[in-house]
């Protein structure tokens, strides 16, 4: 997985291994914890984002959201997860 400021680039396997929290947030706000959320959370997903807890800033734990891009072969692709489900 390659995580950049503009997005999270991952294989389909890495995408499938991320836990989904489309309408909630995971407990345990450890910095670096990652998950995915689909939008809209009901109905067919139009896009996916990866959430990641940042380092606490006082009592606030920031969440960094990045769009997910699935890598197909050697180069990143903009194919949305789920488009290749058959």
| Inertia-based shape | globular
Rg computed from alpha carbons, rounded to a whole number of angstroms = 13 Å
Tally of extended strands?
A: 6
Helix content: under 10%
Major pleated sheet: 6 strands, mixed
Helix count equals 1
Beta-strand content: 35-45%
Amino- and carboxy-terminal Cα gap: 24 Å
- Count of discrete structural domains: 1
Structural class: mainly beta
Helix-strand topology string? EEHEEEE
Mean pLDDT: 88
Identify low-pLDDT runs. Answer: none
Characterise the protein shown here.
This protein has 86 residues and is mainly β. The chain has one domain (2-76). It is 7% helix and 37% strand. The protein is built from one helix and six strands. It has one helix at 12-17; strands at 2-4, 7-10, 34-39, 47-53, 63-72, 75-76. Strands 1, 2, 3, 4, 5 and 6 form a six-stranded mixed sheet that branches. The longest helix is centred in the first third of the chain and has 6 residues, at 12-17.
Task: Give a short summary of the structure.
By secondary structure, the chain is mostly beta strands. 7% of the residues lie in helices and 37% in strands.
Key words describing this protein structure:
single chain; 86 residues; mainly beta; 6-stranded mixed sheet; 6 strands
Topology:
Layout: E1 2-4, E2 7-10, H1 12-17, E3 34-39, E4 47-53, E5 63-72, E6 75-76
Parallel strand pairs: 2-5
Antiparallel strand pairs: 1-2, 3-4, 4-5, 5-6
């Amino acid at each position: 997985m390659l995580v950049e400021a503009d997005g999270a680039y991952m294989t389909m396997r890495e995408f499938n291994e991320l836990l989904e929290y489309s309408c909630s947030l995971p407990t345990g706000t450890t910095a670096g914890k990652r998950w995915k959320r689909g939008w809209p959370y009901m109905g067919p997903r139009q896009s996916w984002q990866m959430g990641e807890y940042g380092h606490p800033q006082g009592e606030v734990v920031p969440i960094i959201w990045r769009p997910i891009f699935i890598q197909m072969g050697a180069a990143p692709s903009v194919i949305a997860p789920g488009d290749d489900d058959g």
